[in-house]
Write a structure and sequence with these properties.
Elements lengths: L1 H4 L5 E4 L3 E4 L17 E2 L7 H4 L1 H11 L3 H21 L3 H4 L4 H17 L4 H11 L8 H5 L4 H22 L15 H5 L22 E2 L9 H9 L7
Antiparallel strand pairs: 1-2, 3-4
Helix pairs in contact: 3-4, 3-6, 3-9, 4-6, 6-7, 6-9, 7-9
Length: 238
Amino acid sequence: MHSEVRPVEGAAFSAATGPWSKPPRQRSPTVRPPMPSNLTKPGAGVHPGATLVPSALAIAQEQGSSGRELLTAVTAGFEVMYRIGRATMHSNERHGFHAPGTTGPFGAAVAVGHLLKLDTETMTSALWIAGSLAGGLMEFARSGTGAMVKRLHLGRAAESGVLAACLAADGFTGPRTVLEGDAGFLKVFCSEWDLSELTRGLGNEFTSLNLCLKRFPIHMTAHTRCRRYLSFEPRQPR
């Protein structure tokens, strides 16, 4: 991914990746997701560490945002993304779509929108746009080949959130019923959904307080086997 972005612009420095050729702001997050990808929240198909943190880092660096502003943006993005993920009932993956690639653009758009200080109407427009940028197929898991695209799904979600927020800031709009419409996100990407999950406990329940940090940077279903394998390692004498 680095080699694909490198020729776009002249040499520059990125605090997250070091010196290399700097891409436009909307492409920058594409190369960053592998770093924090083990931050997750089971049960909703969201990976905030890979889909919204890179976006927020890129824009916070560009805007000169404070640490508090960055954390607030990440938290807001996650809360929105998790609610949308919960509303999918995780059926988007049963329907053949890679969940983080579908929910990620929403969270990233909110995080970036907060850092760009978008007003309420413009922030909402960013979400309307983000729905049209969702995507990612699960075939890599079914065929057992081509799993590199899994990283691409997360990177593109992060990139799409930046694009959605920046387009909204310039006056671009999307469909107001992007989530619940007959041809909207939930009915297209999911086989089951629950609209009430979008607002359940809103303002009172903050799911970001229960985020998980994976012990190993691999899929959670492989953690038990990994721990078992490590238990066979010979103990070093003290």
